[in-house]
Amino acid sequence: LALANIGLDLLGQARHFLSYAAELTGSGDEDTLAFGRDERQFCNLLLAEQPNGNFADTIARQFFIDVWHVALYGRLVSSRDAQLAAIAARALKEVRYHQRFSRGWLERLGNGTALSAQRTQDAVDNLWRFTGELFQADALEIELSMQGIAVDPRELLVEWQSAVHTALIDAGLQIPQEAAFRSGGKQGLHSEHLGPLLAEMQYLQRAYPGQRW
Protein backbone atom coordinates (compact mmCIF):
# COMPACT_ATOMS: atom_id res chain seq x y z
CA LEU A 1 0.00 0.00 0.00
CA ALA A 2 2.84 2.40 0.83
CA LEU A 3 4.45 1.83 -2.57
CA ALA A 4 1.13 2.51 -4.27
CA ASN A 5 0.84 5.80 -2.39
CA ILE A 6 4.40 6.71 -3.34
CA GLY A 7 3.51 6.00 -6.96
CA LEU A 8 0.51 8.31 -6.71
CA ASP A 9 2.70 11.05 -5.21
CA LEU A 10 5.17 10.73 -8.08
CA LEU A 11 2.38 10.82 -10.66
CA GLY A 12 1.09 13.99 -9.06
CA GLN A 13 4.52 15.58 -9.19
CA ALA A 14 4.94 14.56 -12.82
CA ARG A 15 1.56 16.06 -13.67
CA HIS A 16 2.51 19.41 -12.15
CA PHE A 17 5.82 19.54 -14.01
CA LEU A 18 4.33 18.39 -17.32
CA SER A 19 1.44 20.85 -17.05
CA TYR A 20 3.89 23.70 -16.53
CA ALA A 21 6.12 22.47 -19.35
CA ALA A 22 3.14 22.30 -21.71
CA GLU A 23 2.14 25.83 -20.71
CA LEU A 24 5.63 27.20 -21.35
CA THR A 25 6.09 25.46 -24.70
CA GLY A 26 2.52 25.67 -25.98
CA SER A 27 2.49 21.92 -26.58
CA GLY A 28 -0.98 20.96 -25.41
CA ASP A 29 -1.30 19.74 -21.84
CA GLU A 30 0.21 17.16 -19.52
CA ASP A 31 -1.62 14.34 -21.33
CA THR A 32 -0.08 15.41 -24.63
CA LEU A 33 3.41 15.19 -23.17
CA ALA A 34 2.77 11.95 -21.27
CA PHE A 35 0.93 10.01 -23.97
CA GLY A 36 1.91 11.68 -27.21
CA ARG A 37 5.70 11.49 -27.19
CA ASP A 38 7.81 8.70 -28.65
CA GLU A 39 10.54 6.92 -26.69
CA ARG A 40 13.37 9.11 -28.00
CA GLN A 41 11.49 12.22 -26.85
CA PHE A 42 11.58 11.15 -23.22
CA CYS A 43 14.56 12.47 -21.26
CA ASN A 44 14.20 10.55 -18.01
CA LEU A 45 17.02 8.97 -16.06
CA LEU A 46 17.86 5.37 -16.90
CA LEU A 47 17.57 4.41 -13.23
CA ALA A 48 13.88 5.29 -13.21
CA GLU A 49 13.02 2.85 -15.99
CA GLN A 50 14.71 -0.24 -14.53
CA PRO A 51 12.36 -3.17 -13.77
CA ASN A 52 10.77 -3.65 -10.38
CA GLY A 53 12.35 -7.09 -10.04
CA ASN A 54 12.02 -8.49 -6.55
CA PHE A 55 11.21 -6.40 -3.47
CA ALA A 56 14.88 -5.68 -2.79
CA ASP A 57 15.32 -4.38 -6.35
CA THR A 58 12.33 -2.08 -5.94
CA ILE A 59 13.51 -0.74 -2.58
CA ALA A 60 17.09 -0.13 -3.71
CA ARG A 61 15.97 1.73 -6.83
CA GLN A 62 13.42 3.71 -4.84
CA PHE A 63 15.94 4.66 -2.16
CA PHE A 64 18.52 5.91 -4.66
CA ILE A 65 15.89 8.07 -6.35
CA ASP A 66 14.36 9.25 -3.07
CA VAL A 67 17.68 10.57 -1.75
CA TRP A 68 18.26 12.35 -5.07
CA HIS A 69 14.76 13.83 -4.98
CA VAL A 70 15.24 15.21 -1.47
CA ALA A 71 18.50 16.87 -2.47
CA LEU A 72 17.03 18.20 -5.73
CA TYR A 73 13.79 19.62 -4.35
CA GLY A 74 15.60 20.97 -1.31
CA ARG A 75 17.43 23.30 -3.70
CA LEU A 76 14.65 23.84 -6.24
CA VAL A 77 12.47 25.48 -3.58
CA SER A 78 14.79 28.49 -3.96
CA SER A 79 14.25 28.76 -7.71
CA ARG A 80 13.63 32.22 -9.14
CA ASP A 81 10.75 30.62 -11.04
CA ALA A 82 7.86 30.85 -8.58
CA GLN A 83 5.95 27.97 -10.17
CA LEU A 84 8.91 25.58 -9.99
CA ALA A 85 9.59 26.64 -6.40
CA ALA A 86 5.97 25.97 -5.43
CA ILE A 87 5.95 22.52 -7.07
CA ALA A 88 9.23 21.67 -5.33
CA ALA A 89 7.99 22.83 -1.92
CA ARG A 90 5.00 20.52 -2.08
CA ALA A 91 7.00 17.62 -3.51
CA LEU A 92 9.73 17.97 -0.87
CA LYS A 93 7.30 17.02 1.89
CA GLU A 94 6.32 13.91 -0.03
CA VAL A 95 9.80 12.71 -0.99
CA ARG A 96 11.07 13.09 2.57
CA TYR A 97 8.47 10.52 3.57
CA HIS A 98 9.44 8.36 0.59
CA GLN A 99 13.06 8.41 1.73
CA ARG A 100 12.17 7.41 5.30
CA PHE A 101 10.13 4.51 3.95
CA SER A 102 12.72 3.17 1.51
CA ARG A 103 15.61 3.64 3.95
CA GLY A 104 13.72 1.78 6.63
CA TRP A 105 13.13 -1.18 4.36
CA LEU A 106 16.71 -1.10 3.11
CA GLU A 107 17.88 -1.55 6.69
CA ARG A 108 15.33 -4.28 7.43
CA LEU A 109 16.32 -6.25 4.35
CA GLY A 110 20.05 -5.76 4.79
CA ASN A 111 19.95 -6.73 8.46
CA GLY A 112 17.38 -9.48 7.98
CA THR A 113 17.98 -13.00 6.77
CA ALA A 114 21.00 -14.10 4.77
CA LEU A 115 18.78 -14.35 1.71
CA SER A 116 17.27 -10.87 2.07
CA ALA A 117 20.71 -9.38 2.68
CA GLN A 118 22.16 -11.05 -0.41
CA ARG A 119 19.26 -9.98 -2.61
CA THR A 120 19.57 -6.42 -1.38
CA GLN A 121 23.30 -6.36 -1.99
CA ASP A 122 22.74 -7.76 -5.47
CA ALA A 123 20.14 -5.06 -6.14
CA VAL A 124 22.46 -2.29 -4.96
CA ASP A 125 25.33 -3.65 -7.04
CA ASN A 126 23.18 -4.00 -10.17
CA LEU A 127 21.63 -0.53 -9.97
CA TRP A 128 24.80 1.31 -8.96
CA ARG A 129 25.92 1.65 -12.58
CA PHE A 130 22.91 3.90 -13.26
CA THR A 131 23.51 6.32 -10.39
CA GLY A 132 26.25 8.35 -12.03
CA GLU A 133 23.73 9.80 -14.48
CA LEU A 134 21.92 11.45 -11.56
CA PHE A 135 24.74 13.98 -11.37
CA GLN A 136 25.48 14.63 -15.03
CA ALA A 137 24.63 18.15 -16.19
CA ASP A 138 23.89 19.17 -19.76
CA ALA A 139 24.32 22.65 -21.21
CA LEU A 140 20.69 23.63 -20.62
CA GLU A 141 20.77 22.61 -16.96
CA ILE A 142 23.98 24.54 -16.41
CA GLU A 143 22.55 27.64 -18.09
CA LEU A 144 19.28 27.50 -16.13
CA SER A 145 21.12 26.93 -12.86
CA MET A 146 23.29 29.97 -13.54
CA GLN A 147 20.08 31.97 -13.97
CA GLY A 148 18.81 30.70 -10.62
CA ILE A 149 15.95 28.77 -12.22
CA ALA A 150 17.06 25.14 -12.13
CA VAL A 151 19.50 23.05 -10.11
CA ASP A 152 22.90 21.92 -11.36
CA PRO A 153 22.77 18.16 -10.66
CA ARG A 154 26.49 18.09 -9.97
CA GLU A 155 25.76 19.96 -6.75
CA LEU A 156 23.75 17.01 -5.45
CA LEU A 157 26.54 14.43 -5.47
CA VAL A 158 28.08 15.03 -2.04
CA GLU A 159 24.73 15.08 -0.22
CA TRP A 160 23.55 11.97 -2.08
CA GLN A 161 26.73 10.02 -1.43
CA SER A 162 26.70 10.91 2.26
CA ALA A 163 23.09 9.78 2.77
CA VAL A 164 23.42 6.64 0.65
CA HIS A 165 26.75 5.51 2.06
CA THR A 166 25.50 5.97 5.63
CA ALA A 167 22.34 3.99 4.89
CA LEU A 168 24.23 1.16 3.24
CA ILE A 169 26.58 0.86 6.21
CA ASP A 170 23.65 0.90 8.65
CA ALA A 171 22.03 -1.85 6.57
CA GLY A 172 25.17 -3.99 6.76
CA LEU A 173 25.73 -3.68 3.01
CA GLN A 174 28.86 -3.04 1.00
CA ILE A 175 29.30 0.22 -0.89
CA PRO A 176 29.90 -0.79 -4.52
CA GLN A 177 33.21 0.00 -6.15
CA GLU A 178 33.18 2.91 -8.58
CA ALA A 179 32.99 1.68 -12.16
CA ALA A 180 31.81 2.84 -15.58
CA PHE A 181 28.36 4.38 -15.38
CA ARG A 182 25.50 4.00 -17.83
CA SER A 183 24.00 7.20 -19.20
CA GLY A 184 22.08 8.55 -22.17
CA GLY A 185 18.53 8.70 -20.82
CA LYS A 186 18.58 12.49 -20.62
CA GLN A 187 19.50 12.53 -24.31
CA GLY A 188 16.66 10.16 -25.23
CA LEU A 189 18.86 7.05 -25.42
CA HIS A 190 17.13 4.49 -23.24
CA SER A 191 17.45 0.93 -22.04
CA GLU A 192 15.34 -1.86 -23.46
CA HIS A 193 12.86 -1.42 -20.62
CA LEU A 194 11.30 1.95 -21.48
CA GLY A 195 9.66 0.93 -24.75
CA PRO A 196 7.38 -1.74 -23.21
CA LEU A 197 6.46 0.64 -20.37
CA LEU A 198 5.40 3.33 -22.83
CA ALA A 199 3.52 0.84 -25.02
CA GLU A 200 1.38 -0.17 -22.04
CA MET A 201 0.96 3.35 -20.66
CA GLN A 202 0.12 5.03 -23.96
CA TYR A 203 -2.03 2.34 -25.57
CA LEU A 204 -5.50 3.78 -24.93
CA GLN A 205 -4.57 7.34 -25.83
CA ARG A 206 -2.85 6.19 -29.01
CA ALA A 207 -5.79 3.94 -29.93
CA TYR A 208 -8.39 6.62 -29.17
CA PRO A 209 -6.67 10.00 -29.57
CA GLY A 210 -8.11 12.90 -27.64
CA GLN A 211 -10.60 10.85 -25.70
CA ARG A 212 -11.39 11.74 -22.07
CA TRP A 213 -12.35 9.41 -19.29
UniProtKB/TrEMBL annotation:
Domain of life: Bacteria
Gene Ontology cellular component annotations, sorted alphabetically: cytosol
Pfam families: PaaA_PaaC
BP terms from Gene Ontology: phenylacetate catabolic process
Matches recorded under PANTHER family: 1,2-PHENYLACETYL-COA EPOXIDASE, SUBUNIT C, PHENYLACETIC ACID DEGRADATION PROTEIN PAA
UniProt protein name: Phenylacetate-CoA oxygenase subunit PaaI
